[in-house]
Amino acid sequence: MSENLDSLIQRVESDILQREAIVKKDRLQKSKGPAVAVAFVIWVAAIVLGALQFETVVSLFSVNIESNIERDLENILNSAAASLRSYEIESGVLPAILPNPAIRGLVKYERQSDNRYRLSATVNNVSIVLDSSMDRPIRESATN
C-alpha cells in the first residue's frame, strides 16, 4: 500500500509541477501582450509620421541633387563652349553642329551668327543656359 501511496504522491507532485509551468507560461504570455501592442502602436506612429514628413525629406535631398545637376550641366556647357571657341579659332566661324560628339545629345546648340551662339541643357527640370556674350552659364527660370 505504501507503494501505491508513494506513486500517488509522485503523480500529484508531477501534476502540480505541470500546472505551475502552465500558469507561469500563461502569465508570461499575458505580460508580453501589452508590450507587443505598444511596440505595434509605436511602429504605426513612426510610419504615419514618416509618411507625413516624406515630402520634407525628399525636398532636402532634391535641393542637393538639383545643385549637383546644375553644377554638372554648367561644366558640360563650359566644355561645349570651349570646343566651339577652339573650332572658331581654327576656322574663323562657328560650326553648324557641336564639334564634340560626346555632348551633342545633352546640349542644345543654336548658332546665331558666324561668331554668336547659345547653348542650353536641361535635366530633371534644371535648365542651364550659356550665351556667347555671357561669362558663365546661368540657370534658366522655369517660365522660359
How is this structure best summarized?
By secondary structure, this protein is α+β, with helices and mostly antiparallel strands. It is built from two helices and four strands, in the order H-H-E-E-E-E.
Distance between the termini: 107 Å
Lateral strand order in the biggest sheet: 1-2-3-4
Discrete helix count: 2
Number-wise, the strands total 4
Shape estimate = rod-shaped
Uncertain runs with pLDDT below 50, 5 residues or more?
Answer: none
Q: Percent of residues in helical segments? A: 55-70%
Mean pLDDT: 82
Q: Could you state the oligomeric state of the chains shown?
A: single chain
- Taken in chain order, the helices and strands follow as HHEEEE
Secondary structure class reads alpha+beta
Main β-sheet: number of strands, strand sense, barrel status? 4 strands, antiparallel
Q: What value does the Rg take, in angstroms?
A: 38 Å
Name the beta content range. Answer: 5-15%
